[in-house]
Amino acid sequence: MKLAEQRGMATVYEPAEDSRLLATAAIDRIDGGRVLEVGVGSGYVADRIAAETPADVVGCDINPEACRRTRSAGIEAVRSDLTHAFLADSFDAVVFNPPYLPTPPEEEWDDPLEYALSGGEDGRRVIRPFLSDLGRVLRPSGRAYLLVSTLTDVDAVVELADEAGLGAEAVDEASFPFERLVVLEITHANR
Q: Known Pfam families for this protein (predicted)?
């Protein structure tokens, strides 16, 4: 974290248009139960879900500073790489604003904020393992809300969900000058 602080950069992803879109889409569709926000960052999405729904919310992040910050806002947080720290069938809903910006390897840096921004060369480096384990932690009737960008290729993300035995459909979106952000609702395919 010292490198980011020395460069005058944040060490936790701060809420932006993508965070607000994801929070609103999730709040409109979550009516309670146990909810996990993966990559909790500043805690903004988890805090809004906790404040605006009857859900019991927990966050997780690979960045220890993000976990500390989320806990200080009164939301339980677990340090975890994606969903690996959680038991099977643990959540009624999972929300995730992954790092989705396509980033060539030569433009990446070794920094905690890197985990929140870089999606690898195709923007799907973190989305792949998330989708491959999501079905394990999501209860049979559960739903996940995943924010993706047209820069990440929404159709390719839907295909990854399908390969993981999950169904995905767009439930909200917003357009910006260089991209369109889309919230996918993901369920078990047999639902």
A: Methyltransf_25
- In angstroms, the CA 52 to CA 93 distance is 15
Which residue has tokens 């920094």? 111
Residue 24 is part of which domain span?
Answer: 2-143
Tokens 């839907």 map to which residue? 158
List all residues 6 or more positions away from 97 whose beta carbon is below 8 Å from its beta carbon: 13, 18, 19, 22, 39, 41, 45, 147
Is 0.85 surpassed by the pTM of this model?
Answer: yes
pLDDT, tens only, 12-30: 878 899 999 999 999 999 9
**Beta pairing, strands 166-176 & 179-188:** antiparallel
CATH code of 14's domain: 3.40.50.150
